[in-house]
Amino acid sequence: MPDHLDEVHYDAVVVGTDLASSILAAALSKAGKKVLHLDENEYYGGDSASLALEEVVRWANDRQNTASTSGARDLSRYLRRQRRKFTSVSYAFPRYSHSLDSPGSSSPLVLPSELQRASRQYSISLSPTLLPSTGPLIDTLIKSGVSRYGGFRLLEGVSVYTGDGVIKRVPSSKEDVFKDKEMSLLDKRKLMKFLMFATGDFESKPEVQGNEDTPLLSFLQNTFSLSSDVSFAIAFAIAHCTSPQDATLPALQRMRHYLRSSGRYGNSPFLIGHYGGPGEIAQGFCRVTAVRGGTYILGRRFRSLKRNTTSEGAPAHGAFSIELEDIPDTLHADVLITTRDYLPPDMLDGADDNSPSNRSPAAGKKLLARGIAVIDHPIQYAAVIPPTPDADQSSPSSEESTKTPQPLDTTLVVFPPGCLGDTRPLFESSVTALITGEGAFSCPRGQYVVYLCATIPSASEETLPTLNPESLLKPYLDTLVALPRPDSSSSSAPSPPLFQMFYLQRLDEPAATTLTPTESSNPHPSIHVISPDPSFTSPLTETSDWAATEAERVFRNIMRPEGAGTELANEEDEPLDFWPPLEEEEGGSEDVEEW
Amino acid sequence: MADANDASGSADKHVQVKLVLLGEAAVGKSSVVMRFVNNEFQANKEPTIGAAFLTQKCRLEDRVLRYEIWDTAGQERFHSLAPMYYRNAQAAVVVYDVTKAASLEKAKSWVKELQRQANPNIVIALAGNKVDLVTPAPAAETSFAESEDEPDDATATPGEISASAGSHGPESLRQVPKDEAQAYATEAGLLFFETSAKTGEGVVEIFTEIAKKIPIEYILSSTRGAAGRNGAGGARGTAAGGDVNLDGAGKKAGDACNC
Ligand SMILES: Cc1cc2nc3c(=O)[nH]c(=O)nc-3n(C[C@H](O)[C@H](O)[C@H](O)COP(=O)(O)OP(=O)(O)OC[C@H]3O[C@@H](n4cnc5c(N)ncnc54)[C@H](O)[C@@H]3O)c2cc1C
Ligand SMILES: Nc1nc2c(ncn2[C@@H]2O[C@H](COP(=O)(O)OP(=O)(O)OP(=O)(O)O)[C@@H](O)[C@H]2O)c(=O)[nH]1
Ligand SMILES: [Mg+2]
């Protein structure tokens, strides 16, 4: 029996439950708007979802072009676009390869039964990100009250791969620099001088003037006389640059943000969300929306998404009408908020759209190569510093030699460009490996999820077919798992991953379907396009804050008292809070019942 | 927060327990919780929006349990309940309406869903609610309602239903026999009570029995200050030392802001 809705008219329909859309839905609900929130997927989170292992495999199968061409006609618009956004998707279960068909076979792989049983113990993120401990998302989490729905963990360490199987812990504070035993006193002094500079207001300093666009690497080496090793560590593991060409000013600003974030929750600028991070946080925002009366319908395809055209203004039943499979009622909304994944081509024209290709066409076309692997041993490396070195232990050498350091649960390893000796142009990107364990609630005890990511700048259409994410990233995974472990007993060959997947993700619409909005005319003032993928420099550290920034931008456009998109405008003249003050309403009683 | 109490030893263990509510619309999920938390009842309660996150402490022998009660907020209506809802839940109350047979079937499907999605150690209680509608009026006055200083609650809502029910005899409204539900609960390993949010019958009992069944020592030993979070696999926590509380208020925040 089909489900009926009590209500068919909504102030706003939000299509897509990615983090940015979910934040926006929650903000609109808290501002008193009646929200309908839809997602064609059966899971929350869209491109930032956290998925169980079984869902990951289904996700990959849906995005592989192995399905018969006759089936392509039946694909929804969303899925067709997903298939253009996520390409070269491949996955395998190397540990179980003997018991399965070869990965190249046409029939989609099934999970080995052992992994099938444990499927729900994995929360694998499609958008693995580090959350800076100060900034838009953390503010939004606290102000909206969503922080209490989720759990967070401090990133325990950042290391750089310096070549030849050597990995080095990157200091996360000035104290760490002082304690470093390998750096010369002179290098330490230079580094401290730079760190002082980078935490201050450098915009107007003579060092920066005229160097704004200089590559950060040369800036560090020329202006601060830092050694090449130290410069690489700073650029790729502290400022989170992805290319040797990344410009000085934005990199310095990022770095200052992270340096100042350190200390808020501990000795690291970054947090990682439990259960895969953004996908779980998105669910928290959706819960806020639901609590405020929002309606959720997931897993239904659109039968239609139309803008009603009547001659005089918005009709009584809303400007947009939506028909979903299995839902008999036609739903109406005054404002439509969506990602480009869902928007019919004829509606894109004139929408309020902040997508990368719109902001600056040249900045678009970024491509990420991503890899996900599940391994069942920690990545331990010789040069590891114990998680919490005793502050007043001035002679730690004796201690370190007597006890094996505890494996870190949640760490980041950065491979600077070219560090594996490959000099092909596509490899001119750093590769990050984010490792999360059971402490991040992302996998069963004793296992780790490794997320590899490389940003491929300005990939032209022609290189796409030859770009193989697996051959690009696999060497990094192999290097990582082959790192010498401190306990020499386990020097045997590393066991293959339980699961691995590689794919390409493009951060903007393919040229063929990108319609250029006409700036002058604005025929659809009440369509707002959320862009969950900024043309960011550091996908790892900037994506989550971007979601909050983008949500607030669209929120203000929708609520602004005059101009386009006035349907839901705030009546009052005073500036509107993105989040109203938290009320006690969700508090309830605190009485102790005695019995 | 568990960490605030670790130092005080076993005398006053204070354990946070996440409890989720499930059941068909209008069976009385929110009403049962309102009876438990505020000891009040509203005759014509709106479908739930708003208060969807309630906390209630309860003392059990030597320790205090702090229930963090999550109401569905309607997300379950189109089968769109987020996995986050089930995560770390140590207890669930699945509610049906004794006057609606279909609501028991729905409850059974929620139990299945919990067994599939939730922590394998979750304590599940089945509540056959609105039992006042099928009970002769005098019996509905339970000791719980009388002992409170708001007797109005039970009497101020005489209820058209009770009146009309009278003509047929209240038992005729019953669509789910108690022994049928009891048999199902036993088979599925659930706690079972018939309840009335209106009179209070069975409500406190259900939360007390859950409290007794929850492996508190296990929660305490496996969550070092991590607000009772327990992983999908159940046996989590050794690596939980690095968890942070974003609101930053640390230990003393626990009682003030329900975080
Ligand atoms: C196997 C295959 C068959 C195709 N057949 C057609 C076709 O018959 N007609 C056509 O216009 N384009 C067809 N295309 C082209 C292609 O799908 C669209 O140009 C492209 O998807 C536009 O996508 P969009 O997401 O921007 O817009 P969409 O919103 O996806 O579509 C734009 C317009 O093209 C139509 N369309 C899109 N994809 C198909 C499809 N697979 N079958 C039928 N209509 C489609 C839509 O109904 C709409 O009117 C086909 C592609 C493939 C792979
Ligand atoms: N007679 C009687 N009525 C009850 C009882 N419990 C709830 N009700 C009534 O049943 C209706 C629905 O109760 P709610 O508590 O809102 O039910 P719910 O399950 O939370 O409903 P949703 O939030 O819509 O899913 C309200 O009118 C209540 O007053 C009960 O024990 N006895
Ligand atoms: Mg309710």
TrEMBL record, chain A:
GO molecular function: GDP-dissociation inhibitor activity
One GO BP annotation of this record: small GTPase-mediated signal transduction
Biased composition (Low complexity): 393-406
Residue segments, region Disordered: 385-410, 561-595
Biased composition annotated in UniProt, kind: Acidic residues: 569-595
Gene3D superfamilies per UniProt: FAD/NAD(P)-binding domain, Guanine Nucleotide Dissociation Inhibitor, domain 1, Guanine Nucleotide Dissociation Inhibitor, domain 2
SUPFAM superfamilies linked: FAD-linked reductases, C-terminal domain (SSF54373), FAD/NAD(P)-binding domain (SSF51905)
InterPro entries the UniProt entry points to: FAD/NAD-bd_sf, GDP_dissociation_inhibitor
Entry GO terms, CC: cytosol; nucleus; Rab-protein geranylgeranyltransferase complex
Family named by the database record: Belongs to the Rab GDI family.
Name of the molecule in the record: Rab proteins geranylgeranyltransferase
Organism: Botryobasidium botryosum (strain FD-172 SS1)
TrEMBL record, chain B:
Alphabetically ordered keywords of this record: Nucleotide-binding
InterPro entries: P-loop_NTPase, Small_GTP-bd, Small_GTPase
Segments of this protein annotated with the region Disordered: 140-177
Record Gene3D superfamilies: P-loop containing nucleotide triphosphate hydrolases
Species whose genome carries this gene: Botryobasidium botryosum (strain FD-172 SS1)
Full protein name: Ras-domain-containing protein
Cleaved signal peptide residues: none
Coiled-coil region: none
SMART domains named among the record's database cross-references: RAB (SM00175), RAN (SM00176), RAS (SM00173), RHO (SM00174)
Domain of life of the native organism: Eukaryota
Organismal lineage: Eukaryota, Fungi, Dikarya, Basidiomycota, Agaricomycotina
GO MF entries: GTP binding; GTPase activity
